[in-house]
Amino acid sequence: MARAIEESVLDFILVKNTRNGQNGGFKMTLVDRELTTLEKDIIVCSACTGILREPVLIGNNFKCKSCLEPDEDGRASELRFDLTDKLKINCPFMKEGCVWKGSIANIIDHKRHCQFFLKRFPNCPEMDTECSFKQYGCEVVKQRKYMDKHEQDFQNKHLKLVVEHIKNTDDTLAKLSSELGRLKIEMNSKFKQAEKDMKYTFGGIIFELPGIKDKMKTNQSYKTMEFYVGLYKFQGTIYPNYNNDKNLGIFIQIVRGKFDEDIIWPFSGKISITLLNKVNEDNSISKNFITEGESAFKKFFHESTAIGINKFATHDTISKNEYSGGDSIKIKILIQFDAH
Fold first, then answer.
1. Tell me, which fold does domain 200-338 have in CATH?
2. Which CATH number does 2-146 carry?
3. How far is CA 327 from CA 211, 318, 337, in A?
4. Of 97, 82, 114, 103, whose CA–CA distance to 28 is shortest?
5. Which residue in 21, 63, 115, 323 is deepest, having the highest Cβ count within 10 Å?
């Protein structure tokens, strides 16, 4: 299997001689230029057309040693020069994105580290690989073909690393479990203390309803975004033309939240709803009400139930530019309640 993988790697680097089926010269491209005609006559194999590998001279032609025909072997003169150190080439994976440039002699070493080569030949025996016990502390990096021997030779060391890792993991888990328990007790204590110490909670939203002129002609309702005040979750509902009565209606309700099982019921508090005056905020229209005893603020509520004011402001009022300038109105909802 390893031999087949290595042959596939060589096939990618070397030109295949179609006449004898052997791997011939290098199929590399020179850095930043093409070969000149003179260079081709000197450094290109006349048989496989790759860059000469182990060059020999047969008559007036240069060939790779592996490209010789059987009857040429006795007449070939092996040359004493090696082109692999002199020619600067690109990585065979240049088109895939590798920017390495170097000599042919260094391409074999480069392929052990080339990420693009590794993707193409993930099981190449010459590729550097990490020890499978790295997660336990072994930092050895070797060629894949030597890694099995390393793991066999160091079985005892690896076993000790695994045992130490398990021990450290158990110690860490014990410490985390203890710390988690302490934090849980601390958070519960702080939560209960906060309930006792906090006299009231205060918060809300400002909601802008665009296209108010057209919306005043319909009997549709519009929901505000959901929002939390303290641990309670609220939502407002705006009726630009409540029951076609030419009045603005505004309602508020509690909706289901993620803290419902941990907070005090029924909810009671003060709700303030304001139609903002865009010219002079002092002339804004505000109305307040208390929620004590209202069904919308009990724990087991119907989410369609809400309380509010169905005649908050007439169409004549909100049609004034100071309230609906820019074809929108702004409504502020503030909520204040006792935390008990």
1. 2.60.210
2. 3.30.40.10
3. 5, 10, 34
4. 103
5. 63
The dihedral of CA 63, 68, 71, 74: what is its sign? positive
Report helix angle 155-197 to 144-153, nearest 10: 90
pLDDT, one tens digit per residue, over 86-96 is 678 888 788 88
> Domain boundaries in the chain?
2-146, 200-338
Say if CB 329 and CB 212 are below 8 A apart. yes
Given pLDDT bands bounded at 50, 70 and 90, which one contains residue 235?
very high
151-183 per-position pLDDT tens digit: 888 888 888 888 888 888 877 888 888 888 888
The domains spanning 2-146 and 200-338 adopt the same CATH topology: no
Beta strands, E only, 241-319: 247-254, 269-275, 285-290, 307-314
Residue 192 structure tokens: 């209960």
Contact by Cβ (8 Å): 55, 46: no
pLDDT attached to residue 287? 94
* Rounded Cα distance, 193 and 46, in Å: 91
